[in-house]
């Protein structure tokens, strides 16, 4: 169930003086070809050409800038869809993030950011894969010609992207598949309906009604595959159809080291779907998979505390992942 594939952190900022200027630690690059522009951003103290390794992060769904400032009812707010603390990035790595089409790196406005039509028209699995593929190739060609390691992490919707990318770009050495389904995203929703029935939140009859309604919705989307003016859970039909490809089909084609990380308390992606991955790897005799479930963590690797607050464990997962990278 991927309506919020990355938790968008929104906090009241008592004082934000420098706004977007505070992110000057990032270098900004463009790839322009065939009337298309791909914008990517690199955290590289010492410059991109000084690094030996490349770490690319593919973030999840949503039409949000990586950083956003806006005013509402006289209060200044800050939002972020970038979960990493840059100080946790190893010194010998260039850390790269890629903007979605029509979405700026940072937005500072009197109103909350609203995506243009360009975002919805271009949002597809194929286009996001193309973006990352071109960025990796551009960096290797122009800045880091012989990287020792190229590590790519895809989180949530980004996990679908990295699974597909792993079948196409042979330069990648390690893949992180985080908080993603093994099966089609469209299979997530029936699983959640059944879980609600089993937990007593729905009767069997109510579950069947919801299931029938869901399948009617799926048929409507499949009959209008390129529609960007029709939405379901905030995403265009085109997006849902394009991201309905089961990641397991791509993951099984990957032969480099693969690290799957999943929070057992994830309420955006059913862990039952993710368990398809180790089952299929075992069934197909593949041994390049490391499969890690974090018992108390949610979709964004947060832990729900008894006082209602959340404790972030993203950096802990990242450190464990990078230790794995160094050993594989």
Automatic annotation (TrEMBL):
Dienelactone hydrolase domain mapped to chain residues: 231-322
Source superkingdom: Bacteria
Record key words, sorted: Hydrolase
Gene Ontology molecular function terms on file: carboxylic ester hydrolase activity
InterPro entries attached to this UniProt entry: AB_hydrolase_Est10 (IPR053145), AB_hydrolase_fold (IPR029058), Dienelactn_hydro (IPR002925)
Matches recorded under SUPFAM superfamilies: alpha/beta-Hydrolases (SSF53474)
Source species taxonomy: Bacteria, Pseudomonadati, Bacteroidota, Flavobacteriia, Flavobacteriales
Species name: Tenacibaculum skagerrakense
Protein name according to UniProt: Dienelactone hydrolase family protein
């Amino acid at each position: 169930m991927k309506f919020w594939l990355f938790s968008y952190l929104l906090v009241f900022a008592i004082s934000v003086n420098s706004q977007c200027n505070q992110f000057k630690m990032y270098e900004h690059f463009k790839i322009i070809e065939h009337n298309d522009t791909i914008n990517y951003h690199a955290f590289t103290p010492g410059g991109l050409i000084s690094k030996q390794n490349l770490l690319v992060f593919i973030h999840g769904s949503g039409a949000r800038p990586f950083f956003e400032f806006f005013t509402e009812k006289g209060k200044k707010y800050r939002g972020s869809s970038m979960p990493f603390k840059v100080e946790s990035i190893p010194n010998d790595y260039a850390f790269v993030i890629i903007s979605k089409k029509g979405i700026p790196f940072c937005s500072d406005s009197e109103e909350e950011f609203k995506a243009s039509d360009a975002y919805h028209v271009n949002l597809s699995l194929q286009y996001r894969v193309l973006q990352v593929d071109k960025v990796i190739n551009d960096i290797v060609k122009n800045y880091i010609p012989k990287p020792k390691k190229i590590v790519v992490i895809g989180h949530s919707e980004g996990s679908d992207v990295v699974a597909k990318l792993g079948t196409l770009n042979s330069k990648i050495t390690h893949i992180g598949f985080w908080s993603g389904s093994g099966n089609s995203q469209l299979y997530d929703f029936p699983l959640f309906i059944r879980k609600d029935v089993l937990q007593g939140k729905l009767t069997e009859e109510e579950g069947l009604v919801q299931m029938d309604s869901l399948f009617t919705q799926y048929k409507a989307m499949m009959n209008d595959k390129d529609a960007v003016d029709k939405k379901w859970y905030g995403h265009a039909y085109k997006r849902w159809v394009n991201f309905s490809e089961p990641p397991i089909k791509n993951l099984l084609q990957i032969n480099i080291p693969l690290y799957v990380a999943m929070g057992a308390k994830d309420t955006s992606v059913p862990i039952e779907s993710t368990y398809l991955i180790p089952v299929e790897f075992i069934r197909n005799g593949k041994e390049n998979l490391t499969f890690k479930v974090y018992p108390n963590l949610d979709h964004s690797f947060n832990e729900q505390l008894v006082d209602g607050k959340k404790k972030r464990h993203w950096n802990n997962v990242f450190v464990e992942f990078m230790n794995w990278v160094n050993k594989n």
